[in-house]
Design brief:
single chain; 8 helices; 257 residues; mainly alpha
Length: 257
């Protein structure tokens, strides 16, 4: 603090400055611990929900297949909600706050989807992706404006949409349904061009977009219900990696705009 600079004696300076510095350190340590505990709790609840989705998909754990609907929705909302809470604790800068808002909107969309308002949930997801795209664009990395990175980023929406159209050929998939994963894929492509690490945030956004593709397949294919376990696994793993990045990674410098 500036008040420390006026003390001529080193002992007096340390005595004046130490409480403030120790207080800031304790605050940082407390926030760091809270973020990790929230993330850990989210993973535990998310895994419990995943066991239920395996049972409902007929893959394994049949004893978990008949959980009451309110319990299923509560577990899903709690798992995602804990991730959102961790993101807000980590939201110490404007870009991180934008991403926390995006995750909050995703949480709302997830609850709407759980009560079977599919189109409305998809539209809310699109809003979340637009917010995320805005955040990633603010921390675009000029060093990634090279052919290898540009090809990697461009291949995500191209390959993703090609896979979706191939997997759902012969079905009555609507243009509106195909637009939902398109926004998610574009968000992943922009994230890959950001200053955030490729291995965590980049991978997280790509895995999350995969969940949107598989989600549309589960709604359009004849035996799509059997894919619900994979939808949750990719959805939750992608979100967890994004939140882990917000917790661990230093804030990118020189935001654009």
């Amino acid at each position: 603090p500036r008040s420390c600079r006026g003390h001529p004696c080193l002992v007096q300076r340390v005595a004046a400055c130490a409480p403030a510095k120790i207080g800031r350190y304790i605050m940082h340590l407390s926030q760091s611990t809270t973020k990790r505990r929230l993330l850990a709790a989210a993973i535990v609840v998310g895994m419990v929900y995943w066991l239920g989705s395996m049972g409902r998909s007929g893959i394994a754990f049949p004893e978990f297949a008949d959980w009451p609907k309110p319990l299923v929705i509560a577990l899903k909302a709690t798992a995602t909600g804990l991730l959102v809470a961790a993101a807000w604790v980590a939201a110490t800068t404007p870009v991180r706050r934008l991403l926390a808002i995006s995750l909050s909107v995703i949480w709302v969309a997830d609850i709407v989807l759980a009560v079977r308002f599919v189109v409305l949930a998809g539209m809310i997801f699109v809003v979340a992706h637009v917010i995320a795209i805005t955040a990633y664009a603010k921390v675009r990395d000029p060093r990634k404006a090279t052919p290898p990175y540009l090809i990697l980023s461009a291949s995500v929406p191209v390959v993703g949409m090609a896979w979706l159209l191939f997997a759902t050929q012969g079905t009555e998939i609507s243009l509106l349904m195909s637009l939902f994963p398109a926004f998610s894929l574009v968000s992943a492509a922009v994230a890959l061009q950001s200053r955030y690490p490729l291995w965590s945030l980049g991978a997280g956004t790509v895995i999350f977009s995969l969940s949107d593709i598989v989600g549309v397949m589960s709604l359009t294919l004849e035996n799509g219900i059997g894919l619900s376990w994979l939808v949750w696994l990719t959805y939750f793993a992608g979100l967890s990696l994004i939140v882990w990045t917000l917790i661990q990674a230093p804030e990118p410098e020189n935001p654009q705009g």
